User: Which sequence fits this backbone?
């Protein structure tokens, strides 16, 4: 049994695939270096992430399939799901061993798995398009906390950049403690040093808010309540489309 | 301004809520220059109210003043309610500030008819104009066209809007005349035709000149009120189908009548809105638009109303046992789409995968295709052949039994909008 250890980055995983092919060593177990507990039973291969090797694997994949299909494995990777590395590994082994483009052959389990995980990740990214709620600060920055189940920050910058081109904004993943900052020109990743918001309610400290911010939140909540038709109450459908885990950060769902 | 605006907002949102359309789809407007906002083709929902409906747009009336007296409408002139109106600036400010916080995709502006149709239409147009020109707002705008307004005002409005709509509301002319004596079909069809022609000629222009202005690029829609008048589903779906074919509408919305008066004898005294019927009509509408069904296949003289217990695709399958079972490994995409329980997504997965080898039950299950209903109507390699000789009446009973069992576990009054 061969165990491979890598640094939990996407480039690291592609390097791992490269090394496994080069060494002709099949990976039976793939683990993050930090998660690994030394045992006497196996002698793991530790992978040093190498951008060039990763690029070669990526480019190799692009000769087999379209860019859109290749991105499937990156999206699946962002799920951080247990075992997703193994599915990606199996998928790439299959892709490189077959002459045809395997990306839509859902009879293969690894293809179907990757596709389904990708769909979950993209759905979560779309939910950020839906449920991001900016609060305007007195420094004229629009700030929104988020708590996505998957690491979707790398997937959402473009959408918000195109949309809110003329305002400075920050979207911050309060679980993974990093986010995006847009300065009306570029989007970049940031890590906040001070926590000026409540992690549970997502609210920015009142002293930092722009003076009319609260008014617009009240107006929005008022709109939300007024547009509802009481005779058609259907809480199950509401919860199905807007799962409870998002409610904390939605002003309309709080007093 | 706050208290005043807050009060207007609650009155005019409350009065706009019976318009079910909230779609922000059908238009892809990019954020050109350095303005605010864009639209995405598929639309985005931003929240969901307690009734389970999506909030995509700030759906609001300019005013609930109205000169007309339509019995089914909460804003009818004879109704004793508080009246108010927004100013153009107030509406622009609300839209921009909601949008900047990512609460909404844009604005859906409708109105009661204040003073006269031209006065009202001009105001609606001015809100859109202000947003587009002063605020460089590139997000979604849906405007109502007011019947009777000057064609030139409607034309100008269409240059700023992503989508326009005129509501028919009552699905037959005799009923419309009974409930809304000041209206007839011609008054509704006139602006609808006007919008259609403007859309067509704008598209023609666009082919010749790339910079030609778009006119309501997301098309137009309308709404039919269900259950306020006696029309059957056959009449309603035929009307919808002709609106799609002849008026080139993007969407027809169905709104189960929510009683707005208890004293008017012209209207039925419903205990609750006909939500199941409304849901069945949406399902039938989907079959028309995405599944290549014809109206006669869904409702006809023998079955003029949709079956409330079963979705229309399942009813169709049970009425047409001779075309089933469908062989998953051989049948055309269109045929696979006709199998109850198999939707567009599943049908595409099946057609994509079967090129690489035969599919069996295990493959279908792993793909996430639910076989609870489909199993009665398909064959795939070894499986489910056994079902093909079961009588439709028994299939119906089996499926209803299963559904009943499921409903008993959950709350009996909950029904998913799209099954």
Assistant:
């Amino acid at each position: 049994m061969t165990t491979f250890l890598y640094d939990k980055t996407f480039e690291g995983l592609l390097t791992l695939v490269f090394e496994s092919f080069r060494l002709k060593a099949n990976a039976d177990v793939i683990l993050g270096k930090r998660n690994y507990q030394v045992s006497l039973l196996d002698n793991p291969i530790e992978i040093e992430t190498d951008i060039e090797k990763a690029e070669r694997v990526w480019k190799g994949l692009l000769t087999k399939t379209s860019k859109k299909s290749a991105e499937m494995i990156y999206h699946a990777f962002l799920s951080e799901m247990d075992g997703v590395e193994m599915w990606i590994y199996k998928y790439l082994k299959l892709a490189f061993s077959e002459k045809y483009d395997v990306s839509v052959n859902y009879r293969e389990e690894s293809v179907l798995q990757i596709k389904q995980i990708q769909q979950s990740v993209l759905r979560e990214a779309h939910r950020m398009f839906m449920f991001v709620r900016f609060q305007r600060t007195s420094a004229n920055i629009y700030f929104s906390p988020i708590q996505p189940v998957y690491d979707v920050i790398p997937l959402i910058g473009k959408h918000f950049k195109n949309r809110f081109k003329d305002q400075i904004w920050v979207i911050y993943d309060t679980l993974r403690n990093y986010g995006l900052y847009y300065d009306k020109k570029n989007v970049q990743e940031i890590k906040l040093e001070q926590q000026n918001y409540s992690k549970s309610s997502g609210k920015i400290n009142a002293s930092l808010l722009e003076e009319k911010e609260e008014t617009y939140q009240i107006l929005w909540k008022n709109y939300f309540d007024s547009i509802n038709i009481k005779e058609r109450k259907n809480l199950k459908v509401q919860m199905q489309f807007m799962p409870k885990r998002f409610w904390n950060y939605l002003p309309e769902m709080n007093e | 301004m706050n208290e005043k605006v807050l009060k207007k907002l609650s009155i005019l949102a409350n009065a706009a809520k019976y318009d079910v359309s909230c779609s922000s789809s059908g238009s892809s407007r990019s954020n050109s220059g350095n303005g605010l906002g864009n639209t995405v083709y598929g639309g985005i929902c931003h929240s969901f109210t307690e009734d389970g409906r999506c909030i995509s747009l700030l759906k609001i009336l300019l005013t609930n003043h109205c000169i007309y007296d339509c019995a089914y409408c909460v804003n009818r002139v004879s109704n004793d309610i508080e009246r108010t109106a927004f100013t153009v600036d107030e509406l622009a400010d609300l839209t921009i500030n909601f949008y900047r916080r990512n609460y909404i995709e844009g604005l859906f502006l409708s109105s009661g008819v204040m003073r006269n149709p031209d006065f009202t239409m001009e105001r609606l147009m001015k809100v859109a104009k202000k947003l587009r020109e002063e605020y460089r707002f590139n997000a979604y705008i849906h405007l109502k066209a007011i019947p009777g307004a000057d064609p030139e005002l409607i034309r100008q409005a269409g240059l700023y809007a992503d989508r326009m709509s005129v509501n028919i509301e009552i699905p037959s002319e005799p009923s419309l005349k009974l409930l809304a004596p000041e209206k007839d079909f011609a008054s509704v069809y006139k602006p609808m035709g006007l919008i259609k022609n403007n859309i067509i000629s704008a598209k023609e222009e666009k082919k010749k000149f790339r910079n030609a202005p778009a006119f309501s690029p997301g098309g137009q829609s309308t709404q039919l009120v269900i259950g306020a008048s006696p029309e059957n589903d056959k009449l309603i779906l035929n009307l919808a189908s002709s609106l799609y074919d002849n008026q080139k509408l993007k969407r027809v919305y169905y709104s189960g009548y929510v009683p707005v008066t208890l004293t008017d004898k012209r209207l039925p005294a419903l205990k609750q809105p006909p939500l199941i019927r409304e849901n069945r009509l949406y399902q039938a509408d989907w079959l028309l638009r995405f599944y290549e069904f014809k109206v006669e296949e869904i409702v006809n003289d023998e079955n003029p109303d949709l079956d409330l217990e079963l979705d229309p695709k399942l009813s169709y399958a049970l009425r047409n046992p001779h075309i089933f079972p469908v062989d998953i490994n051989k049948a055309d995409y269109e045929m696979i789409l006709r199998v109850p329980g198999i939707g567009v997504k599943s049908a595409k997965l099946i057609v994509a995968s079967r090129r690489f080898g035969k599919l069996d039950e295990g493959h279908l299950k792993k793909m996430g295709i639910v076989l609870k209903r489909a199993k009665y109507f398909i064959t795939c390699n070894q499986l489910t052949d056994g079902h093909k000789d079961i009588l439709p009446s028994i299939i119906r009973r089996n499926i209803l039994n299963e559904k009943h069992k499921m409903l008993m576990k959950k709350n009996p009054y909950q029904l998913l909008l799209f099954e």
